[in-house]
Design a protein that fits this description.
Blueprint: E1 10-15, H1 22-34, E2 38-43, H2 48-58, E3 62-65, E4 79-80, H3 82-85, E5 92-96, E6 99-103, H4 105-116, E7 125-128, H5 132-143, E8 149-152, H6 158-166, E9 169-171, E10 181-184, H7 203-208, E11 211-214, H8 223-230, E12 234-236, H9 238-254, H10 260-270
Parallel strand pairs: 1-2, 1-3, 4-6, 7-8, 7-10, 8-9, 10-11, 11-12
Antiparallel strand pairs: 3-5, 5-6
Helix pairs in contact: 1-9, 1-10, 4-5, 4-9
Length: 272
């Protein structure tokens, strides 16, 4: 039976332009399984400063931060962890008695997945996206030794700027480039979005690639991932990313690290 919040229940939340249910189900499932008096709620806002002020004033323990707030919230917190300071993008805020410290567990999750899937830094890479999540993912690959990278981004300002910062080439479109590893860090393929049925990269590029990596988690089987699977490519899905980053958030909020089996069951539950 789900735990009933009390006056002593510790509150956690998330802020997103389009709130989803994965974090709510993942965190609350683990709270219940571990007997923790916590409760998690997904929210959106049209007034980010007021929302962050509410986190501080109301004693909200932790807040996950998603698009489009990953960069804008930086000016509203008190301290940046190294995982966030290095890339100037955050996805997690922890409140210690009114002191707000920001982290980037997206970056941590990507570094873990690179190791888990045995991705070689000698692999040629094309990454699409230059927003807050794009910064985290691209920086994780660069820091893991991937030097042969191309950043594909339509934005003529953030794209070249991030590419220069990382030492990567910038292109507005992939064109005739055929890298071994394709990484999508844009909303292309995301459920409910205007490009839900589109491919993040041209089909010819997917055919030529060895590895397909989509950070979009909803659905886990985006058109890009489905094509990669059909062509027999090594595939990494956004579900893996969202589960790992949510786990690291959970640990930051509670100080408790669940077992691998508990995380597996929470991930299955969160998928609905």
């Amino acid at each position: 039976m789900p735990m009933i919040p009390t006056r002593d229940t510790v509150l956690c939340m998330s802020l997103a332009g389009r709130p989803g249910t994965f974090g709510v189900r993942f965190h609350n499932h683990l709270y219940e399984q571990l007997g923790l008096d916590y409760y998690y709620k997904a929210c959106s806002t049209n007034d980010l400063p007021a929302a962050v002020g509410g986190i501080r004033a109301l004693g909200i323990r932790g807040c996950g931060v998603s698009m489009p707030f990953k960069e804008a919230v930086i000016a509203l917190v008190d301290e940046l962890d190294a995982s966030a300071a290095a890339i100037q993008s955050i996805n997690t805020v922890v409140n210690d008695n009114g002191h707000l410290k920001a982290y980037n567990t997206d970056y941590i999750a990507i570094r873990q997945l690179i190791d888990r899937h045995g991705l070689s830094p000698d692999t040629t890479l094309a990454l699409r996206g230059s927003g807050g999540m794009g910064k985290a993912v691209a920086s994780a690959f660069r820091d893991a030794g991937f030097t042969q990278g191309t950043l594909v981004a339509r934005n003529p300002e953030s794209g070249p700027a991030l590419a220069r910062q990382l030492g990567y080439e910038w292109r507005p479109e992939l064109g005739d480039l055929r890298p071994q590893l394709l990484v999508n860090v844009t909303p292309i393929g995301m459920s409910g979005g205007p490009e839900a049925n589109d491919l993040a990269f041209p089909a010819e590029a997917v055919e030529a690639a060895s590895i397909v990596f989509d950070v979009v988690a909803l659905p886990a089987l985006t058109p890009f991932v489905q094509l990669g699977q059909a062509l027999g490519k090594q595939v990494i899905t956004g579900l893996e990313v969202i589960a790992l980053q949510a786990l690291e958030q959970f640990v930051l909020y509670t100080g408790v690290r669940p077992t691998d089996e508990q995380v597996r069951l929470a991930t299955e539950y969160a998928r609905g």
